[in-house]
Write a structure and sequence with these properties.
111 residues; alpha+beta; Aminopeptidase; 3 helices; 21% helix; 38% strand; globular
């Protein structure tokens, strides 16, 4: 399972998320992301991935824009995430909030 997580743990994270998003090629799931949120001011974006064979096709950017533009998430004051790939998120308006050496804490503010 993903990142060494058991199927049970993955299911629990999905069950306790506010929204889950999937990207499919036919019937095969090739991407995923989830948001935990109060649906008013704050959301946390987690477990964002596109399978390596499908990267470089714009699917990740499309999924990220779909999440950002979701009617219940679009006007939140802050969407945050932890990432090892901050360059992917800059174009979507995310900025590094707390610089670190390995994993960046980023946020996207809506004023």
């Amino acid at each position: 399972m993903g990142l060494g997580r058991s199927r049970e743990l993955i299911q629990k994270t999905i069950d306790n998320s506010t929204y889950c998003f999937g990207v499919y090629q036919g019937t095969e799931q090739v991407g995923f992301a989830r948001v935990v949120s109060d649906l008013a001011t704050f959301g946390f974006l987690a477990d964002v991935f596109i399978l390596s064979d499908y990267r470089g096709r714009g699917l990740g950017k499309w999924m990220l824009q779909t999440i950002i533009n979701h009617p219940e998430l679009a006007n939140m004051k802050r969407l945050t995430l932890f990432t090892r790939t901050p360059d992917f998120y800059y174009d979507a308006g995310f900025e590094i909030f707390v610089p670190t050496n390995e994993i960046e804490f980023m946020e996207r503010k809506v004023l």
